[in-house]
Amino acid sequence: MRNRQDIVKKCVIQPKRAEKLAGRRSGGGFTDKGKENDMSKIAFVFPGQGAQYTGMAKDFYEKYAVSREVFESASKASGLDVKALCFEENDRLNITEYTQIAMLTAEIAILRAVEEAGIRSQVNAGLSLGEYGALVASGVMKEEDAFTVVRKRGIFMQEAYPTGGAMSAVLGTDAELIEKICNETQGIVSIANYNCPGQIVITGEETAVAAAGEALKSAGARRVIPLKVSGPFHCELLKGAGEKLGQELENVEIQPFTVPYVTNVTAQYVTGPEQVKELLVSQVSSSVRWQQCVEQMIDDGVDTFIEIGPGKTLTGFLKKINRNVKALHVEKTEDLDEVRKECL
Length: 344
What we know:
alpha/beta; Malonyl-Coenzyme A Acyl Carrier Protein, domain 2; Alpha-Beta Plaits; 2 domains; 15 helices; 14% strand
């Protein structure tokens, strides 16, 4: 596999190029009705696992045929009863190998209703698992392929490091200090997520994460909160899972882009279809540069972010990254009605 510098070099798209790509999309700067929406440049953003709950997207399933079709597609691709997984109380929803397919299904079910309402984005992005929602929204991956891959991704990540790993949220200190302490701590510990100013997640071996957490508190971090997770995601301990994912991706055909998207690995625009798989493999064991992704989109003129999926996690992050942009979310059918009023 080529080194990260090669990936960055070939995957970066400059803002003017992003404008051209966005303009190809039906509704790029316009709604389907042809009405110019010259006040907003819209980004769809998709959350990662952790926001799941029983009943997510159920109202969309009941109201919209396009959403029901998504659940049927996900069940067929995964071999699971995804409707039951999402809507009925069960002990699997919070297990990674099931969480990921459930979350992605809910996100795409809501996305299809948003698209049917005539709302269009000019760029897309997603946090961790949510990047697959962005890939589908950008036309990069067919939804049935995304469901097949994500089902396997969840299994590979669940199996990669079943015991001895940990993750903690670090609040109230800067990234440079966290990076420094992680580098100085014995064992494997690194930054998993750059979520927003004042909130960064560290990941790695349980003993190393605990030691880094104590050192960070001594250095002035306001709080260090251990997270209830089933593995040390987004660190080098998951490289094996990424390699298995790469083998699974060999069977997937990457589609021509209809809308640009920003990748977690580099926080840059991606244009080359040939680089998508490599970035998805790297993403499993690389830091999620979410704050930087958002800042990149804002620098490119995005002023309206619509979070699509369960919860309001990304909306909360966005308000801490930049309060001057509009943060909307679609989690319930009534949210879609409100967003239509804002965007159409």
